[in-house]
Each structure stands twice: as C-alpha cells, then as structure tokens.
Amino acid sequence: MSKALRYLSKTRPEAATNLMGFYKHSVQALDEKTRFLIQIVTKITVGTERGLRQYAPKALKAGASKEEILDAAMMAFPAAGLNKLLDAINILNDLNLLPEVEDEAGSAPKVNKDLGPLDLFPEKRMQCLKRPDGDLLVYRSGPEKVAVYSAKCPHSKATLCEGTDQGDKVECRVHNWVFDLESGKCIDPSEQGGKRDLIVVPVAIVDGHIMLQ
Ligand code: FES
User: Fold this and answer.
1) Which CATH architecture has domain 31-94?
2) Mean pLDDT along residues 18-25
3) Using 50, 70 and 90 to split pLDDT, how confident is the model at 23?
4) Per-residue CA distances from 164 to 7, 170, 182 (Å)
C-alpha cells in the first residue's frame, strides 16, 4: 500500500476501504497478465513513472513477454501522445523489459546477459523467462542464492515452463519426471536408469542483477 493510501486509511478509513474494495473486486474476468498489461497502458497514459516501474515488472512476472510489454506501451500512444510514450520506452528500457534489437550491422540480436534484478524473483518460486536464445527457469532459494536452468526437460525436451509448479519442485507434464529446483536433480523417477538432471545455466549476481556467465 502506498504512503498516500496508508494516510487515507487512517484519516478517511471508510473512503479508503471502499477504494481498496473497488480495486480488489471490480475486475473479475481478466487474468493477471492481462490486468498488468492494461495497467501499463493506463500508467503511461496518465504519465506516472512510479506506476509504470511498479506494474511493468509484474506483467513480466505474470508471464507477459517483452514483445507484449512493448505492444501494451504502443497501445497507450493515441491517448498518451508521443512524449509520454518515449518517456515510457526509456523507463522500460532501463528496466530491461523491452525486446532486444539488432545491432547496426544487422547481425543477430546480442544475447542479453542480464536476467533482471534479484528483486524480480521472489524466494522459493519458480519463474520462467522467455528468451530468444532459449527459455530459462529461475529459482531463488535464498536472498543471494539463485539457480538457473534450461527450461527444456532433459528427458525429451518438453518445456518445463508448462510443468506443474510444486513450490521447490517442478513436474514435467509429459512423462511426469520431477526435478528439485534448488539442486536441479531429477528426483522422480528415483530409480529408473537414464534419468537426467536439469541443465544448469551458470550465472552470477552482479550489483543485485542475475547475470549469465
Ligand atoms: S519430456 Fe519431460 S518427462 Fe518426458
């Protein structure tokens, strides 16, 4: 809750409760990703940098791709105008939430080694990062401890982004292999020969960001 809402909840409790109730109950049919994408449009339209910085990372966390975030920003243009749109593009770029661009020579896009600030990854939750160079699973097991894996199941390459999230484990939906997300080990089937662990992607934490090595 923002400082301003906290203030209102003390000085005008009924108004604040009704306002919060409106936010909580007014939207029922939209999924989380769509709601956050729409929030991007509204934050750009009203020109609130703080709101954009708050909601754009939430859209990514809820499964929006960087292309979808860019599309949402572009949709604000008719109401927001060019200046607000360009300001928003700068902010999204700062947050590393925009798709990669080709370099001047027109060669393939450079691989962005920055997977994002640690704060984008709550502890003990698997997150899937959609990337042009291959999707990744990110699992933060402690304040400064993070494991990153290829999202391809090592059994037969199904995507574990669509696996069943079991908190500290993920289960592949195709043949139900289960992987421990802290160690990357395959823990079920426990005996079957030929089982393989998740493919580890080496990373380091640099200035609070998770960087590919
Ligand atoms: S493809 Fe994942 S368990 Fe078979």
Assistant:
1) Up-down Bundle (1.20)
2) 82
3) confident
4) 41, 6, 16
